Amino acid sequence: MLTSVYNLRNLVELTLEWHKKEDKAKYALSEEAWEAVEKIAGYLAPARKATTKLQRENLTLGDVFAIWTEMTIGLQKKNSSLAKTLLSAMSERVKAVQYSKKGRCAGEGEKTSPLFHYPAFNAAVFLDPCYFSLLTTEQITEAKTYLLDLWKRLQSAKGTPTPTVVAEESGDSGPDCDGVSADEDEVDFRKHLEKQNQARKVVTAASTGRKDSGVNDVAIILENYDRTAEFIPVEADVMEYWKKRKLSDPVLYELAMIVLAIPATQVAVERLFSCLRFILRPQRFGLSASAVEDITFLHANPDMVREIAKEVMKPNGP
What global pTM score does this model have? Predict the structure, then answer.
């Protein structure tokens, strides 16, 4: 809002010229006040950009983590008391342990994990080659443990034993992406990400590749992915990345489709619940499981549905 007011400074001053002198004296801002507005808007620019980005659809947990990291880097560069206060609040929010029941002030209730430190988050970022280098060694270990347990639960739900699958190593750097312009904060974040990627390469290169006789189990598939996977550009579509590997890496593909689908923001959660409220009406309770799944998919992916509809409705050639 401050940015909008400053950008409309000429309009505000012109409007006040049309009013009475008393109104102008009461509401007009001095040159020092306008400079203060400009400075405050500049200090809060990284937060404003992050807020806008967090409103996008189809955000993954890796995207949210990247937006948060980019905002942190941008605020650190501002070196102002306002930016430092915001950074301090962000740091406290990341470390805070939430409570899902009553009695929060007394420290009662069921504890939930901090913002960026829980197994499902680590697993989602681990299977996102755009941002997996941002994870620490401890987070990577926790992600592997979570994914292995998730695979076992999947096979148990299907009523099938955990299969042994041969993991194919791939040196593919990911899909090609068109270059897009980036602002200063994005450039700094990408430099930070590149440093993390280089550090990750050093760590993974230190571990010698193992050639196991026979077939590999899921744990070794995860180890091979950690050791050999190449990062992809931040503009890449991670879903398309895994769809292209559906046949070569079926285990990782299935796990990625689950953890990358975790709602990353409250907006995404509300959107999904809205879909469920529309589907699970009394007159719809007789729908089969496959029909409910199809309807949920359509409402959760409106952009994809619109593109498919355009292709279907294209007029046929002569």
Answer: 0.63
Question: 């400009």: which residue's tokens?
Answer: 38
Q: Are 165 and 218 in contact (CB under 8 A)?
A: yes
The mean-pLDDT minimum among 114-123, 222-231, 235-244, 266-275 falls in: 266-275
How confident is the prediction for the chain on average, in pLDDT? 76
β-pairing verdict for 98-99 and 111-112: antiparallel
Identify the CA nearest to 280 among candidates 270, 265, 291, 269: 291
SS3 letters for the chain?
Answer: CHHHHHHCHHHHHHHHHCCCHHHHHHHCCCHHHHHHHHHHHHHCHHHHHHHHHCCCCCCCHHHHHHHHHHHHHHHHHHCCHHHHHHHHHHHHHHHCCEECCCCCCCCCCCEECCCCCCHHHHHHHHCCCCCHHHCCHHHHHHHHHHHHHHHHHHHHHHCCCCCCCCCCCCCCCCCCCCCCCCCHHHHHHHHHHHHHHHHHHHHHHHCCCCCCCCCCCHHHHHHHHHHHCCCCCCCCCHHHHHHCCCCCCHHHHHHHHHHCCCCCCHHHHHHHHHHHHHHCCHHHCCCCHHHHHHHHHHHHCHHHHHHHHHHHCCCCCC
**What radius of gyration, in Å, describes the C-alpha atoms of the chain?**
25
Q: Provide the token pair at 12.
A: 């505000």
Query: Could you give the CA distance from residue 186 to residue 163 in angstroms, rounded to a whole number?
Result: 42
How far, in Å, CA of 227 to CA of 222, rounded? 9
Neighbours of 295 (CB within 10 A): 17
> Is the Cβ–Cβ distance between 17 and 49 less than 8 Å?
no
Asked which of 42-51, 52-61, 153-162 is least confident by mean pLDDT, the reply is 153-162
- Are 83 and 43 in contact, with CB atoms under 8 Å apart? yes
Sign of dihedral through CA atoms 283, 285, 286, 287? positive
How far is the C-alpha of 77 from the C-alpha of 84, rounded, in Å?
10
The answer to whether 233 and 130 have CB atoms below 8 angstroms apart is yes
Q: Is the distance from CB of 146 to CB of 120 less than 8 angstroms?
A: yes
Question: Residue 115 pLDDT > 90, yes or no?
Answer: no
